Amino acid sequence: MPRAVVLLSGGLDSTTTLAWANARGYECFALSVDYGQRHRVELERAAAVAKALGAVEHRTVTLDLRAIGGSALTADIAVPKDRSDEAMGQGVPVTYVPARNTILLGVALGYAETVGAFDLFIGANVLDYSGYPDCRPEFLTAFEALANLATKAGTEGAGRFRVHAPLLKMTKAEIIREGTKLGFDYSLTLSCYDPDAAGRACGHCDSCLLRKKGFAEAGVPDPTAYR
User: Fold this and answer.
1) 5 and 50 in contact (C-beta within 8 Å)?
2) pTM over 0.85
């Protein structure tokens, strides 16, 4: 079985990505990053997801991005609530964490070298929410090229690193249908940017609104606990 490192936040997209890779015969090593995000409860969900999906290993790396801030997820900046589809589709939102996916993929790449994996999976998605520049196909292609130039394994010809984003051009409804087809229980996941102390979703941030819309369009009951 080929080995793969799967970035796992505990949210809907990354969870479906792990289920997708697992179903296709990859030996999955799940990686979560505690970067100081306000919704750190998602890390508890990631651990539950990794266990439920039978990941070979689940590691959590601590890297505090609050030191640089610049995002509603890592600084004292309000999380936008109740925005329209039109508003969500314009510009880069304040929930963008500077260089986050570059950093997370960099950590995943280092982890992959240590476990002998050449496949990196990320739950990037552009159709329902295209505001994040580090979710674009161009970025993922560029990082894949970097991975093969910047590593011992890549330069010595041990293998070729590949970055996979199987959900990239899927709508949230299509993602939910795919995960449901694979038999995954989405009640284990959390997508909210501003959950309460009990881990209940706010129901009003961009991520919650897109998640609600996705379940509605998929015709699948939403198992999310909203406050």
Assistant:
1) no
2) yes
